[in-house]
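Open question from group meeting: does this chain pack into something compact, or does most of it stay loose? Before anyone orders reagents, we agreed to write out a predicted structure and look at it together. Recording both the input and the output here so the notebook holds the full record.
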Amino acid sequence: MPNLAIQLVHLYLPLIGWTLLGWLMGRYLPKTTSTYLGRFLFWIGVPISILAFLRGADLSGQVWIAPIVAWVAILLGAGFAWLWIKHQPTWSKPTQGSFLLASMVGNTGYLGFPVALALGGQNLFAWALFYDMLGTTWGAYGLGVVLASRFGLGIERRSQLTLALLKNPALWSFGLGLAGRNVPLPGWLETSLHQAGWGAIVLALALIGMRLSQLPSLSRLSSATVSLTIKMLLVPLTVSLSLPFLPIPEATKHTIVLQMAMPPAFATLVLAETYGLDKNLAVTSLALGSIGLLFTLPIWLWLFSV
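Structure tokens returned:
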């Protein structure tokens, strides 16, 4: 239990501190600040962090298992959500779509990366990265787009989001980082690259706080609670039961489970706005999930320690 307390302190200090700072900035700075910061992270910050942390990541294991587990979790979340929807005959199509998306894809980039780095170290970062790049990203802007167009109103924009996925600089930096991870760099450049990578992680946490501070009033609490129960508890618990049979170290299994337990991704709100889904449900799921992570993380860490 002392080790668990130490882990939580090491994780929560930066997680809460930088997010809270971002929340305060979002309340007092112009709203365009978060827009510019988001663009900077999308085009520069996150790609640099991927390049930096890939250089020290351990790819000697069966890291390809991570995206497979990610897709199992995505499809399982969609399945559980669809079973619940079947018993809600009064729900509109847009509400069904937002509920499905919130139950499927998690914030494995802006939140999953710092959690993985804080608890698993840089050696296990590749597992979180593969989970996000080949799992969550394609799950959100691939399968997520298909579902959003099916349940929403903006089907004419599917090609636009598909093109946006292919132009995602994080995906390109992922490929570049894999190709050049063993290329030797001068010491000063290696150090600067890692400092920039950690700086991007800090800015990502601040951006989450800024975006949370700008969310409108919450509604649809009961529906959001059900989707979060599926996404952050039921799916990771179900999938974790099969992980002992995989030929990977225990620490790696823990990293994967934590990625599954992340709250809904901000991509769910992007899709809700683009396709005319239930934006209120998407917003409520995002806010409650981000706060709820502070209470669910100790549960997973405790389960790992017993």
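Observations to bring back to the group:
The CA atoms of residues 47 and 170 lie 5 Å apart.
The chain has a mean pLDDT of 87.
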